[in-house]
Design goal:
By secondary structure, the chain is an alpha/beta fold. The protein has two domains: 198 residues, 3-Layer(aba) Sandwich (Rossmann fold); 146 residues, Rossmann fold, CATH 3.40.50.460. Helix content is 35%, strand content 19%. Strands 3-2-1-6-7-14-15 form a seven-stranded mixed β-sheet, with helices on both faces. Strands 9-10-8-13 form a four-stranded parallel β-sheet, sandwiched between helices. Bound molecules: 6-O-phosphono-beta-D-fructofuranose. Homodimer or homotetramer.
């Protein structure tokens, strides 16, 4: 099949995730081995929408030399942003306020001016929703699922998740010794947006005593009961892992901030839970927020491999004439699914899944248990 492709671009949008550079590496080599030219757009689409702000015009020539040695590096050599949605681009008004402007047509013109025949867009639900929009507007495009949150549907996993879980688990392991030494409750808050995957997997892998996730609204009484029972049995410390998006029964999410052109920023639930557990149990509590530490650092070998497989599959998809699809892990293979399907729903933790059942069998509490009367 002749695709007519001579030049492709790669863009990385939204929060960074370990494994992005492996995608860039594989996409570049797979494309160059087909004789295609490859460029990287800086900071999502800002390299094209605000090219005058960049000394290099907002694009990086992705040569074999430029991508050499980047597989193991965290972050993205292209830069990223969560303030560059071309459909609702934040533009400051004369009175100092911000408005959201649709810059889709302008962006498509920039792609044409730069001789870019197709785009590989690497992102989470936000960036892939933009990708679906650009595809419908006429751009040849393949999506690659990225996020530490693992909340994208139609792929068994996203890259970045394994690295985030591994590091969260390592941190929680360390908190055990200090919690034990001081007979404290330690509440660890982890990222994950509206899904509890990171909290569930890291919490289970480290053997915490309670896990609070957005999918199971919680009450703290059952958690306090367990902590008190443990103390009576001589275990005077307890560790609770709470997802940033967890919600109390009848309550809302804990939002740290909301700015124009950005998704709401979650954060702060760990301190609340620690204070309430201290009040309920009378035991000293501390909160630790792992935050962006989960996005940093070198990807695990699993995320590197997933990134390489996704990047190469994106190029194969273009070569086979696809557009408007997302590469997806469908073990044991990587295949393609329509972008529209992938973004139509968020993949959250099924409350009856075997991991939750396993955790309950281990005695881990989720805050939905009934409490003994009295
Ligand atoms: O989607 C990835 C993620 O790290 C979420 O887990 C978190 O809620 C959000 O991004 C934080 O975004 P920011 O870096 O913009 O604060």
């Amino acid at each position: 099949m002749t695709t007519g492709i001579k030049r492709i671009a790669i863009s990385t949008g939204g929060g960074d995730a370990p494994g992005l550079n492996a995608v860039i590496y594989a996409t570049t080599l797979a494309a160059r081995n087909r004789g295609w030219d490859v460029v990287g757009i800086r900071d999502g689409f800002n390299g094209l929408l605000r090219s005058d702000d960049y000394a290099d015009g907002g694009m990086i020539d992705l040569t074999r030399h430029r991508v050499r040695g980047i597989i193991h590096q965290g972050g993205t050599i292209l830069g990223s942003t969560n303030r560059g949605n071309p459909i609702a681009y934040p533009v400051r008004q004369a009175d100092g306020s911000w408005a959201e402007v649709d810059r889709t047509e302008e962006l498509l013109e920039r792609f044409a001016e730069r001789g870019i025949d197709a785009l590989v867009t690497v992102g989470g639900d936000g960036s892939l929703t933009i990708g679906d929009h650009l595809h419908r507007a006429g751009l040849r495009l393949i999506g690659v699922p990225k996020t530490i949150d693992n909340d994208l549907d139609r792929t068994a996993s996203t890259f970045g998740f394994d690295s985030a879980v591994g590091f969260a688990s390592e941190c929680i392991d360390r908190l055990f010794s200090t919690a034990t030494s001081h007979s404290r409750i330690i509440v660890v808050e982890v990222m994950g947006r509206y899904a509890g995957w990171i909290a569930l997997h890291a919490g289970m892998a480290s053997g915490v005593h309670a896990i609070l996730i957005p999918e199971i609204p919680y009450r703290l009484e059952p958690v306090a009961e367990l902590i008190t029972q443990r103390a009576q049995r001589g275990s005077t410390y307890s560790i609770v892992c709470v997802a940033e998006g967890a919600v109390p029964v009848g309550g809302g999410r804990t939002v740290a901030a909301k700015a124009v052109g950005q998704a709401e920023r979650l954060g702060g639930i760990g301190s609340k839970v620690a204070a309430e557990l201290e009040a309920l149990t009378g035991r000293e509590s501390r909160a630790v927020v792992l935050g962006h530490l989960l996005r940093g650092g070198s990807p695990t070998s699993l995320d590197r491999l997933l990134g390489l497989r996704f990047g190469a599959a994106a190029v194969r998809a273009l070569d086979e004439g696809h557009s408007g699809v997302m590469v997806a892990l469908n073990p044991p293979t990587v295949d393609y699914v329509p972008l529209a399907e992938a973004i139509s729903r968020q993949k959250t933790v099924p409350p009856d899944c075997d991991s939750i059942q396993t955790a309950r069998d281990m005695g881990i509490r989720f805050g939905d248990e009934s409490v003994a009367a009295g």
